[in-house]
Amino acid sequence: MKDSDEKAVIDWLVDGARPAPDTQGVLAELCERLLRCGIPLWRVGVFLLTLHPQIMGQRFLWKPGAAVDVNGAPFEAFQTDDFRNSPVRHAIDTGNVIRRRLRDAACPKDFTMLDELRGQGVTDYLAVPLYFADGATHGATFATQDDRGFDEVQIETLKSVAAPLARTVENRSLRRTASALLDAYVGNKGGARILAGQIRRGDVETINAAIWLSDLRGFTTLTERLAPQTLLDLLNRYFDCQVPSILERGGEVLKFVGDGLVAIFPISAGGEDAAQVCSSALTAAREARAAVARLSRRLTARGVLPSVSAMAAGPSPEPYAQGLRFGLALHVGQVSYGNIGSGNRLDFTCIGPAMNFAARLEGLTSKLRRTILASEEFAQRCPAEFVPIGQFEFAGIAGARPAFGLPDEPGRNERPQLPA
Hints:
Blueprint lengths: L2 H12 L8 H14 L6 E7 L5 E8 L6 E6 L6 H4 L2 H8 L3 E3 L13 H6 L4 E8 L5 E8 L7 H35 L1 H8 L8 E13 L2 H7 L2 H13 L2 H6 L3 E6 L2 E8 L6 H28 L6 H5 L13 E17 L2 E7 L1 H16 L3 E4 H4 L7 E8 L2 E9 L15
Parallel strand pairs: 10-12
Antiparallel strand pairs: 1-2, 1-6, 2-3, 4-5, 5-6, 7-9, 7-10, 8-9, 10-11, 12-14, 13-14
């Protein structure tokens, strides 16, 4: 391999590895360039720690003739013995370069995965640390099945690639990390809008949407009876009963407010998909109701939730008469969707009369002892699913408005009343 070949690869990385748009594109192009330089690569891996609430890191794995494989690893995976005892983990933790010439009889057997690599025909293996500008250390590995292994010039080339590769991958990672955090905190659609530049206060758009607003019953009593960590664990599991169904059915979770959850299911501008969107939201609502009921039974059996007899001695046993309970309002209307806040502290959310009415309707679920209530606007899109349960007055809203419930939820005291 000529020095000019190595320099061309490094110059390409230093120049930003254009036009590769992401880390897998960078890795694929880099490996192809190294192959053309005569380095007999069989497998190359890049291992990146990441900032994500569920994923500790990502592995990008290249092999000749195949697309780069990308896998996310949960936090638990990084604590396993296999990863703790791997060469790449050692390179990340110590900053040392690890080379193992597996074809040599005298090769140390100090890492558990070396026998597996030898069984795959690997003859030479290199793990190098990747240093990011933010101080974090990540790792890359290079393996060959060539009978001769890597020669010393090739090893030095792979080492010299590490620094510019780290810079290039870090640039790609920053946007991926920002996107993941925005997805986690403001939702996928809101995050995409923010990354696209919709970041000024007052940048809003009016959209049609099915609105989901839910709230846990008896939460105040729970806060007084449960230890803080137990309460947080319960809340997280309670939200896990709702969020997956919302996302799977096309909804977007906007925010958690204490024990409350606000989500929307966007409807097209022409409204032609309104019935389908509302049907999907109702399916998610039924799935959430069933999931909360299952969670309630498990928590009661384990003694996390007070039993009915235990609560009877307290000041307000009613919220627990049927275990863990929540109320959910479904409505349809126009909402203003965008940036609202003060100065440089903004929130990406929805406001408008439709949101206000959904909140009032959700409050009615407690008084009627129903889990799911729908507005007339929502029920009209699912006419076979709901039954009318009466006209009700709502604070701050002129005139009585009808409410609709599910036939399998017989409520009590269903008469016009003014929610507190």
